[in-house]
């Protein structure tokens, strides 16, 4: 389960953190409020193609970070163990775009 998403210097976002709870989570807001940027940030942590144009104007780099709870996903735990990782209840995926 996705627990949180942190974004720094991505497009128009200087700094933001979004927390998610169990079940359905919805992003709502006015046009231009950044809903798509939140989804883009999550996609970047999962491997979407990045561009230097996504870095906030005046910043050297953007940082996106997703925190996932994996203790209740046996397949994810097994895969990480097979890859040689020490498995923790949470996995942090981060990406820096320079």
What does this structure look like?
By secondary structure, this protein is α+β, with helices and mostly antiparallel strands. The chain is built from 2 helices and 4 strands. It has helices spanning 35-45, 74-82, and strands spanning 2-10, 13-19, 62-69, 90-97. It is globular, with a radius of gyration of 15 Å. The model has no long low-confidence stretch (mean pLDDT 94).
Mean of pLDDT: 94
Helical coverage, percent range: 10-25%
Number of helices: 2
Strand order of the largest sheet: 2-1-3-4
Rounded to an integer, what's the Rg over CA atoms? 15 Å
Strand elements, count:
4
Terminal Cα span: 28 Å
Along the chain, the helix and strand elements come as EEHEHE
Largest sheet features: 4 strands, antiparallel
Indicate the low-confidence ranges by residue numbers: none
- What shape does the CA trace take? globular
SS strand fraction: 25-35%
Structural class: alpha+beta
How would you briefly describe this protein structure?
This protein has 98 residues and is of the alpha+beta class.
List keywords for this structure.
98 residues; 4-stranded antiparallel beta sheet; 2 helices
